[in-house]
Design brief:
Helix content is about 40%, strand content about 15%. It is an alpha/beta fold and about 325 residues long.
Length: about 325
Amino acid sequence: MVAHRYLGNSGLKISEIVYGNWLTHASQVENDVATRCVHAALDAGISSFDTADTYANTRAEEVLADALAGVPRHELEIFTKVYFPIGKMGPNDTGLSRKHIMEGIHGSLRRLRTDYVDLFQAHRYDVETPLEETMQAFADVVRQGKALYIGVSEWPADKLREGHALARELGFQLIANQPRYSMIWRVIEAEVVPAARELGIGQIVFSPVAQGVLTGKYLPGRPVPEGSRATDTKGGAQFIERDLHDDVLLSRVQELWPVAEELGLTMAQLAVAWVLQNDNVSAAIIGASRPEQVAENVAASGVELPTEVMSRIDGILGDSVVRDPALTNVPKGRYS
């Protein structure tokens, strides 16, 4: 069964494997398959579920609600996010203005069919809205009981510090950051993780398997497998396009097979277990298009990788690892 960890320095425990429905529910998979994947997650002990209003333009939240119907609310931790365009994408249908945050939480609660979410997250940093306005709106959401905790996603270290300080002034905690993180994408390690440790913010990381690159199924110089994320025209292919054109990286990933096999793990399990070794990581988000994928990934829970294995992985991947903290995603504008 999946283990649980505290989220940052809060008293909230979440499953260290979180089920997420970006690019899957109401998009890549049919609703009945989505329901089977969610039920597989529940059967494996996953209690934490991550979504966002922008996923499938709000439909993913509805599909998740359908899949979780009948599960006692107190047994779940439900996360959602606000920032990106939704609806007709009008001038106030995006960003972190008070208007969009308040409309965002009301819409998400309606679609998720719940009175509150456990974690409400700023999906990106909004360079066009004063941070004071954003944090005041989040404070009001917490006081109204519509969200128990507040988090962010892909915020750089300096913005985490500013947001955390304002949250304390307003009487609530900023307890989570949701960044992209994997063996090959480590941009949070130099600045974000040290700041988060200091502030008591935990990481809930997405793409621990690098959108499938770390499964080893993408071979250098070979066509991508049919039905893989690389063939998804709804966003998945664009997300991993850079890696698929890096034959050096793909060759080095193939060298990880013996490491996984010696540990009795699949490549995906090795990748998920790797991010969970970071003591600032509270959880890793997994997605699935088949229930079997859930069962495979949750087996990474509780796996401890020896120091020599971690060093061996570093040696194999070498300079293919992306570490530049400047690549932390801060949009230039709301539609970036």
